[in-house]
Amino acid sequence: MTVDRLPSAGRRVEDILNQHALDMAADLIVMGAYGHLRIRERVFGGVTKAMIDVPTVPVLMVR
Q1: Rounded to an integer, what distance in angstroms lies between the CA atom of residue 59 and that of residue 48?
Q2: What is the C-alpha to C-alpha distance for residues 14 and 19, in angstroms, rounded to an integer?
Q3: CB burial of residue 2 (10 Å; 0-12, 13-18, 19+)
Q4: In sequence order, what E strands does 1-63 have?
Q5: Taking every annotated instance into account, which residue ranges of this chain make up the domain UspA (predicted)?
Q6: Cα–Cα dist 59/28, whole Å
Q7: Torsion sign over Cα 7, 16, 48, 21
Q8: 12-38 pLDDT, tens per residue?
Q9: Of 60, 57, 54, 50, nearest to 25 (Cα)?
Q10: How far is CA 29 from the centre of its chain?
Q11: Is 32 in a helix, a strand, or coil?
């Protein structure tokens, strides 16, 4: 297993994760998810929702 620290340079987290998956030729992204209040999620958005909405590679989401 490898752990990589990635600079954001002002980009969105989901963009960084998807690009890194492509750079590493990953077959799958595995990530945990936890819920927020729906109103907070609507106002601020969230990485979890973004990763599900527009995945670059398949995503296994565990809650």
Answers
A1: 10
A2: 8
A3: exposed
A4: 29-32, 59-62
A5: 12-63
A6: 6
A7: negative
A8: 999 999 999 999 999 999 988 776 666
A9: 57
A10: 8
A11: strand
Q: Would you say the C-alpha torsion 27, 48, 1, 25 has a positive or negative sign? A: positive
> Exposure string (b/e) for 19-38, b if CB count within 10 Å is 16 or more?
eebeeeeeeebeeeeeeeee
- Residue 9's region, left for phi above 0, alpha for psi from -120 to 50, else beta, is left
Place of tokens 């595995």: 30
Domain edges within the chain: 13-62
Two tokens at 54?
A: 């527009």
* Confidence (pLDDT) at 63: 73
Tokens matching residue 18: 């998807």
The one-letter amino acid code at 47 reads V
Are residues 52 and 15 in contact, defined by beta-carbon separation less than 8 angstroms? no
